[in-house]
Amino acid sequence: MDKVRTRFAPSPTGYLHIGGARTALFNWLFARNTGGTFILRIEDTDLARSTDEAVTAILDSMKWLGLDWDEGPFYQSKRLDIYRCYAEQLLKQDKAYYSEPNEEGKRAIFFRMPHEKVAFDDLVYGRIEFDNALQKDLVIIKSDGMPTYNYACTIDDALMNITHIIRGDDHVSNTPKQIPLYTALGFPLPRFAHVPMILGEDKTRLSKRHGATSVGSYQEEGFLPEAMINYLVLLGWSPGDNREIMTQKEMVDAFTLDKASKKSAVFSMDKLKWMNAHYIKGQGMGELVRIGREQLERGGVPRENIDDRKLAEVIALYRDRLKIMKELVELGGFFFRGELEYKRELLDKFLGADGVLAALEELETRLVQTAAFDTAVLEQTCRELTAKFGLKNTPFFQGIRVAITGQTMSPGLFDTMVVLGRETVIGRLGSALRLMHESRK
Fold first, then answer.
1. Which of 63, 106, 208, 259 is catalytic?
2. pTM value surpassing 0.90
């Protein structure tokens, strides 16, 4: 077999979506598994809808996913002379013709579609046949001079020596339009592999109503690229041994098209979050701190409030419960905020419980005086106060938690106090106590 050459050819009319990322991944894996070449081509002939912003977003998303390309990116908008040249060849051979001129006097070019059966052996679905008897002639150059998708795609795949075209099965109907063009131009046919579409959990085509569909959105939410790649590879493909967690190298080593499914894959956000949680647990702290900082800043925490050493301590507290890094903002944002905005009802319920306010006042005093500020000292101090004031642990500890975090939930109370630090804990106890006293005047 000739050296494998695959390609990913997105249209820059929007961001890289989940389906496109899965297609790029399958092409990348097949090239890497066979020692072949992976090519990136930007199909930007729709000048009205293509944008530089979308190109940048697509390239950034591919880099984030780790899908490096060997050649490209090539831009169809810079290859117009090539498409025109081959159209002229078809015109000379009477395999194409001009349309009647439009109101502006411009004419399109049509390819004479042979009215015959077209068959090919798909590497996923097997033998597929079409009867082109009812197929209309194909526009290859529009009246504005731009090539159509099926025409430009065929020319580029042939000239770039693409050996395997791996794409979604929504393109199956394009294949019988493209094969006659290959034949008419004397190009060798590549192998085709059409993979089933990705569906939402309601078994309809994946769309925005199922949640975020762009890769960039998942990056912003705090998903890890390793988790995203691992999840995407399992949408329509399986290594065959029930493995779910796989390294990139393991995916490359195992990837063959005969393991691709003929059934549509269902995208499950819960499954993706489960997988992401697994990767968060195994990710290096340096990378988690970098992502955590991004999430906190995006969540409105001032940059100067974020100390990387403290952030690492906070992530260590939450690591086993995080599904996406964005949750760090909601769960642990209080570690990095100055003044807390307390909910009045929480203060009244938890600090206003019998005996709690007096115990908190003495706790504030003791924390100022105590020499050490570690979990053992803090636990001993708090338990002494529950005994002195005749309190149960739960209401007193919850009163402390609300006062220093503004929330009813946090990691272990004493671990939380240590990470917050003596000065912050004392300051927040004081603020909460003042608010309680002011409300009782």
1. 208
2. yes
